[in-house]
What does this fold into?
Amino acid sequence: MVGNSRLSIRLSLNWFYDKETERKWIHLFPSNQQRLKVNTIEMKIDSKIARLIGLAFLFSINACTELVEEGIEVSYADSNAVVAVEALGGENAAAGETVSFAITVSSDFDIKSCIVKAAVEGRNGSGFNVSDTAFDDPFADHIFGTIREGIQSFKVRYDYIIPDAINKSRISFTIIDESGRASQEKTVEVVPAIAKYEDLELYAKDGTFHDALATIDGNVYSDIKTNYSKLSEANVAVQEKIDIIFYYDKEARRSTLAAPASGRVDLELNIENNTLFRVLNPTEAVTLDNITPSSLAKLVSDASILSDGSSQLTNIKVGDVIGFVTDLNAVHSLKSGILIVKGLHPANVARYAGVSYVLECEVAVQK
It folds into this structure.
């Protein structure tokens, strides 16, 4: 622009007559109400006015930007604010599960924003959980983490839903206050999903006639020495799957869980997996309903089964929660699981003559 040149802007102004108020109105946009259109005019706006309109627009955009500024890309001084992050229920979970964090913040200055960033973005639905009434909602904007004015402390909940095909994800929790920036980090470890098998029954007559369990699919294979010891492609495929054998010692009157490779029974199998067992002592009741991938992984890890486990457990009893880890060379390689003993008692079954013993149990195992 030079001299007194003017900027021409073509606007359509619609005149309407309101019968109720007996007034004329100008609308820049069409109205949904039934009014009488009178005329459309053209007008020129002075370039100074146009500049003022432009400046006002830019000012409004800038104000919005400042409101939701997340601060991560800005170089901030260190803040003395206290940021504490605690996982609610553990930091490990399987794909599709939610890991929740309590973020507690205290500052001597007004807090501008609380930003959570994950190295691997969580599934849709991840974010601040403001529906939990046990936590605060200090946000002016829940997406950007903008905090309302005048707030210097809060406790909020953040949910991270683990995406598929990752091993772990590092998550940073950052607050920006008027003095600077403070951060904490957590790493979420991804554990395998689990399969659950209920109402399992394994029968045993003695050390020769007994059933076995394959944890990869929850199938019970009956009378394994008679049915699966002969060398054949089909039998070898079953032998590769078998992880747990149940048998009953009539002389000692004891029920036993054993690995095929334990040597406690003469199976005459070509492939014998060496599963390791250990009786667990959980501090809380463990059921098939409340076991999760993360809680199962923690139970078995805490029991140090790989280093301290045994290939056999004798004198098992009702109520026992037994942890196990499958053989490295098994089809279901190095999978952790638990077996919950629900019942042990004499029983009759057609495949074994006379009185047998039955193990009623439930199993949860990593996929």
